[in-house]
Amino acid sequence: MARIKLQDIHKHYGSGANAFHALRGVSLEMHSGEFVALLGPSGSGKTTLLRAIAGLESINSGCIQIGDDLVAAPGRHVLPERRNVGVVFQSHALWPHMTVFDNVLFPLRESGLSAAQASPRVMEALAQVDLQALARRTPGELSGGQKQRVALARAMVARPRVILFDEPLASLDVELRRDMMRHIDQMRSTQSSMVYVTHNQEEALALADRVVVLSEGCIEQVDTPIRLCREPQTEMVARFVGAGNLLPARRISAAQGGLAEVALGDYHFAARDTSAGSTQTELRLCLAPTAFVVAAPNAPGLSVLVEHVFFQGSSYAVDAVLQGALAVPLSLVLPFEAQPRRGDVLRLQVRDAWVMPEARGTSQLI
Ligand SMILES: Nc1ncnc2c1ncn2[C@@H]1O[C@H](COP(=O)(O)OP(=O)(O)OP(=O)(O)O)[C@@H](O)[C@H]1O
Description:
Layout: E1 4-13, E2 20-30, E3 35-39, H1 46-54, E4 61-66, E5 69-73, E6 76-77, E7 85-88, H2 100-110, H3 115-128, H4 144-157, E8 162-166, H5 174-186, E9 193-198, H6 201-207, E10 210-215, E11 218-223, H7 225-230, H8 235-242, E12 245-256, E13 259-264, E14 267-272, E15 282-287, E16 292-294, E17 302-311, E18 315-322, E19 329-335, E20 345-350, E21 354-355
Parallel strand pairs: 3-9, 3-10, 7-8, 8-9
Antiparallel strand pairs: 1-2, 1-4, 4-5, 5-6, 10-11, 12-13, 12-15, 13-14, 15-21, 16-20, 17-18, 17-20, 18-19
Bound molecules: adenosine-5'-triphosphate.
């Protein structure tokens, strides 16, 4: 395993007025043995960053260090095969004419290991992904999920110090995804550091020790999955990671013990607030879709008009509109018992709210 240090990475495609800046000053330190997910919308630069770490893409400026090795810097680009990293691509990238065994053997053969030394290592890697029985098949005789497990075995067989994953589950159906997530989770025991690119929030939050949220080539926030969901630092993270509702509100009293009294219209409630005694009255609140409970019609709370209801098995996803002067759209998840119907006016109470940090101003409200 190895620490990965990225310092002020810039990458653009094309030049002059037509240059497209895919990475704009990305700096980050990943700890040795850490599982880090790179999460962001399409085009945010995740794959470019992963390929730059792998050495498959050169960078225009900045430095990349893996362990003690400087692998990319001005005038320096260490080739991928010399970086000691394993890569798992979305498309498996297996050799079609080779057996499963030989595909997994390939990186060991490249590193000069004898057949006698390599063979048990291949079988051990295949065992980790439950594929020993299929060692003699070719990729054409495997399902999509099995092919991807071969790709996992091939990435870990050489015991690289870093394993990079580029959307490895994107082409798999829901059931196979969960199975693959178990295998990827088990790969933690290989002691490799892992960097995992995805645009899928669930995968990133479920697997990673820390998640790096990228937007337009810049880092928005680096945090543990829990903090990312509960304490988003920017509007983009609040919306993209937690599908949070962002509302303008008033602070009634400064935070004490991490909670402030806030108001939406004439409804007062407590919100988590780490702004260290800020008395600024105008603020933005982040309310997760699950932050609401249905109250009695005359209880203190917010009135919302239900516009769309989507049954989700054990809960309902609801699009609603806040009634009153604000009239903003809200995305809610209500429990099965709520039985919301289109056209209902519901009274909701807020059971959890987060005061957004002030840094980015209040100009981007809603
Ligand atoms: N070879 C290239 N030439 C020109 N532009 C490129 C090239 N590769 C990537 N880009 C652009 O750089 C930006 C970042 O691309 P990248 O593939 O890193 O994004 P991503 O976050 O991985 O997106 P996705 O989830 O869709 O794969 C995109 O706007 C993309 O169009």
